[in-house]
Amino acid sequence: MQPLSNSRQTRRDWLKTTASAAVGAGLLPQLAFGSKSSKTESYRLTNPKVDMRVVTRGPKHHWFAYYDKLEFDATNRYLLSMEVDFEHRSPKADDEVGIGMIDLEDGDRWIPLAQTKAWGWQQGCMLQWRPGHTDEILWNDREGDRFVCRILNVKTGKKRTVPMAVYSVSSDGKTGVGPDFRRVNDMRPGYGYAGLPDPYADQLAPTESGISRVDLDTGETKLIISTADVAAIPWREDLSKNKHYFNHLLFNPDGSRFEFLHRWRTLGGGWPRWLTRMLTAAPDGSDIRVIDDCGVTSHFIWRDPETILAWSRYPGSSEKLKSAGLPYGFCLFEDKPHGNVELVAGKEMYRDGHCTYLPGHNNRYILNDTYPNSKRVSSVYLYDTLEHRTIPLAELDMPSVYTGEWRIDLHPRASRDGRHIIVDAPYRDQGRQLHMITLKEGALQ
């Protein structure tokens, strides 16, 4: 069988191509972001009531990666980050990245903490503060013939290991769930980890690979959802000849359920190469529900324990999307099979982005970003769900060398009080670095 990972066309390539074509044909409006470009500046503020500063510096490159993890500690003083001394190539098995934290109240001082050999450009090593624990952080690493999770108390220095790499952690910090990162790397380089081949690479939907759960206190692990079981859930087309995997897992706010994306790639080319459906399950893997089966579900976040915000084109909302003149959009999905679907935003926020809710405002504001436009400018902004308007924050230059697997997505992440926003972006000649946006009084007006 020809390895699927050899294909150079990704699902995002297809989405970007179709979205660009739709803009060119007049089917979609061009958002008023990225209107300026500069070869000498790295960023520009687009809101007079925000400040920005770069909180890491070269010669090493710094980034946090994914947008749905706790980057700030409970006091909003310490900020987690990774650092590496190269860019613009895939990680190799022996490439280590450093893990540290920035003291925002001591001149942005870098505090080294650990290293890891299990990481990727897009989602890092799942570095995050452990929910429900003031002083503990966790990240994935490679140990012998397996990927593991390290848990470190940053005050005492005590470190321990649980025998499974995690993707998402419950709100009480007791349970982790994760996909088979070996298979993720085989299917989508940049999201899994180098160093361990997928032992089921020649199987389309293995029974011994899928989503596992780990008790972060005891280390007890269990495979709770197999790839074969989910691939067998009927879809509108035959899935038996496609290669399947899981990615993008996320617990809901109270830890009672988690979301995951079931993705597969067609073997014979055609359109599109990638297809996706969004499902949820109980923490033990039971009560699996298909929430969005349109085939193109992308970035998402839980709004509350029963509702998911996701960028998609869902058949149940097609009339609403059509009436807004949009083929895609951000929708609220009820966590029920055939549940209610509500279009959140129209032309003000139609493009895919990395969405979260800004803390402290009762889910009123959605924090989001854009991919680089034709001038290689990415934007970060807020969307007001009550007044249906966007609040621009900043534009950041994204040189074309940052593309493909080692591109830089802004991935905006807010502090726990909602006052600060961190994005990953290039800074002048220093490569990827962490930028902090601070919302001043009146910034949301």
Task: Please describe the topology of this protein.
Blueprint lengths: L10 H14 L18 E3 L4 E5 L6 E3 L14 E7 L12 E7 L5 E8 L11 E2 L6 E8 L2 E8 L5 E4 L5 E2 L5 E5 L1 H7 L22 E6 L5 E6 H5 L11 E9 L6 E8 L8 E8 L7 E7 L4 E5 L2 E6 L5 H6 L5 E6 L6 E3 L12 E2 L7 E5 L7 E8 L4 E9 L15 E2 L5 E7 L5 E8 L6
Antiparallel strand pairs: 1-26, 2-29, 3-4, 4-5, 5-6, 7-8, 8-9, 9-10, 11-12, 12-13, 13-14, 15-16, 16-17, 17-18, 19-20, 20-21, 21-22, 23-24, 24-25, 25-26, 27-28, 28-29
List keywords for this structure.
single chain; 445 residues; mainly beta; 5-stranded antiparallel beta sheet; 4-stranded antiparallel beta sheet; 29 strands
Please outline what is shown here.
This protein has 445 residues and is mainly beta.
Structure description:
By secondary structure, the protein is mainly beta. Helices cover 7% and strands 38% of the residues. The chain contains four helices and 29 strands. Strands 1-26-25-24-23 form a five-stranded antiparallel sheet, with no helix packed on it. Strand 21 and strand 22 form a beta hairpin. The longest helix is centred in the first third of the chain and has 14 residues. The protein is globular, with a radius of gyration of 21 Å. It starts with 10 loop residues before the first helix and ends in a 6-residue tail after the last strand. The N terminus is likely disordered.
